[in-house]
Amino acid sequence: MENVEIIENASDADIAKWLENRLTRTLSSRDGPVTITVPGGSTPFPIIARLLEADLDWSRLVVWPGDDRIVPEDHEASNTGKLRALFEPAGAEVVTLTIMEQVPHFDLAWLGMGADGHIASLFPNTYPQLEEARRIIRLTPDPLPPEAPFDRISLTLPALLDSDAIAFVIRGEDKRAVLDEAVGGKNDLPVARLLSGAKQPVVCFT
Ligand SMILES: O=C(O)[C@H](O)[C@@H](O)[C@H](O)[C@H](O)COP(=O)(O)O
């Protein structure tokens, strides 16, 4: 896949600088809001904390969680709660995912990946489709991930693909092997399905 670039051994600071540069370019290219979707889990939050040290017009940033666990925002498992605590003090808007939301085009779709090849909350047993008509879905992972055993709400493949660029942060040898298989078309996991539909640049920080 010639549109996929892998950047190895990227530190949180390297990734935050890449994000800062990309947001700076987008903010200076036009007026109005800049809209991105960001992952949950654990990896992104230290990166976001570094990113927020940058001197950007955060009031123009609209942040969509790529997915969340169906828990109150003050629950330790809430992605949205963590994103709100980080971005809102800087002046950015954090959207609450509901199936009623009109999902916009994203200037950047930033994703993580599980060792099972899931992205957002699109787990392998959900068989996510590129032709999915819905942009946001609620689902019950099966099996429930032990680290976050909750029902989910998630953007779908078409929603994530409606973006100018895709960025992954995928760390660990086991996950790298899954990514390499997906890039090589050797598995049909959710990450592979997303990559198969991506025409935009995809950067994978490992
Ligand atoms: O709600 C979630 O858990 C995430 O959105 C999920 O898709 C995450 O990105 C991966 O599980 C990787 O998580 P880590 O990068 O923290 O391992």
TrEMBL record:
Enzyme Commission number(s) of this protein: 3.1.1.31
Cross-referenced SUPFAM superfamilies: NagB/RpiA/CoA transferase-like
Gene Ontology molecular-function annotations: 6-phosphogluconolactonase activity
Reaction catalyzed: 6-phospho-D-glucono-1,5-lactone + H2O = 6-phospho-D-gluconate + H(+)
InterPro entries: 6-phosphogluconolactonase_DevB (IPR005900), 6PGL (IPR039104), Glc/Gal-6P_isomerase (IPR006148), NagB/RpiA_transferase-like (IPR037171)
TM region positions: none
Protein name: 6-phosphogluconolactonase
Biological classification of the source: Bacteria, Pseudomonadati, Pseudomonadota, Alphaproteobacteria, Sphingomonadales
